[in-house]
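User: Sequence for 2Fe-2S ferredoxin-type domain-containing protein below. Tokens please.
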Amino acid sequence: MELQSPFTSFLCARSPSNALISRPFCPRNRPFFSNKTRSLSSSSSSSSSSSPASSVISEIPTHKVTVHDRQRGVVHEFLVPEDQYILHTAESQNITLPFACRHGCCTSCAVRVRSGQIRQPEALGISAELQSKGYALLCVGFPSSDVEVETQDEDEVYWLQFGRYFARGPIERDDYALELAMGDE
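Assistant: Structure tokens for 2Fe-2S ferredoxin-type domain-containing protein:
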């Protein structure tokens, strides 16, 4: 007997004959990494089927993503469906791009958008101000059109993001505080 997690059980219903019922978001029916992404939509009047409950499969738009990797001196071009993260799709096609956290919280995968648009609702590592200046995170970015981007130096983006908070002039060494901290040595 096959084990299922509660999440999988919720999304993947079974019929009385114990056969898997096809649902659009069932992890067994639709792998996360796929070059062809499909979704179900209701049938139109031009459908050949007379049943109102029938479905038509439509393709999710796919966009060309061009990444100029400054650190490695390489240009990558690949296709990404609108509903998948750019970094994950690149990795599924054996393309190596910079990353660290994979959750949109750091600046390791930061890029500057040259043309096109990236939707990034979960990008916590880039402020709204930097996003408006054309910065994006590949790990949580979805292409909204054909996109051309350039990787950035992580330290540069980090400085733009947080520098004004940490750079308040030179740090003065406090030997007395250091002696207190090291106390028992």
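The chain is about 20% helix and 25% strand.
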